[in-house]
Write a structure and sequence with these properties.
receptor; mainly alpha; G-protein coupled receptor; pheromone response; single chain; membrane; 4 helices; Vmron_rcpt_1; elongated
Length: about 120
């Protein structure tokens, strides 16, 4: 089971790396179109590459934290309510946190919400 998980995580890492490579290649391809006014802004290709890497790292963090916590809860003699509740939160952590990571990184949404 661990070998299968490691294999799928390797495929996920390869796919994410390939996506970052394609975005970097696209960035290099359109670099000549940028004017001096746009040189100080982060290009969309770089923002997308950062998001891909951030989401992959977020997923790996929650996955490995879940693995270690599951092993701890499984092999501990006493099952504490707090440990089991924390394990359930970690199980749902990526699904809960990843949309907020994307929303926070998107600059267009801050323009839509009025500051008070």
């Amino acid at each position: 089971m661990v070998l299968r998980d490691a294999g799928f995580q390797g495929v996920m890492g390869w796919a994410s790396g390939y996506m970052v490579f394609l975005l970097h290649k696209q960035h290099q391809h359109v670099l000549y179109l940028q004017t001096s006014k746009l040189l100080y802004r982060t290009p969309p290709e770089m923002k997308a590459a950062q998001r891909v890497l951030l989401l992959m790292l977020c997923f790996l963090f929650f996955y490995w934290t879940d693995c270690f916590m599951t092993l701890h809860v499984t092999f501990s003699l006493e099952k504490h309510f707090i440990e089991v509740s924390a394990l359930e939160f970690v199980d749902l952590g990526y699904a809960i946190l990843s949309p907020f990571v994307l929303i926070h990184r998107d600059g267009h949404l801050t323009k839509c919400w009025p500051a008070q």
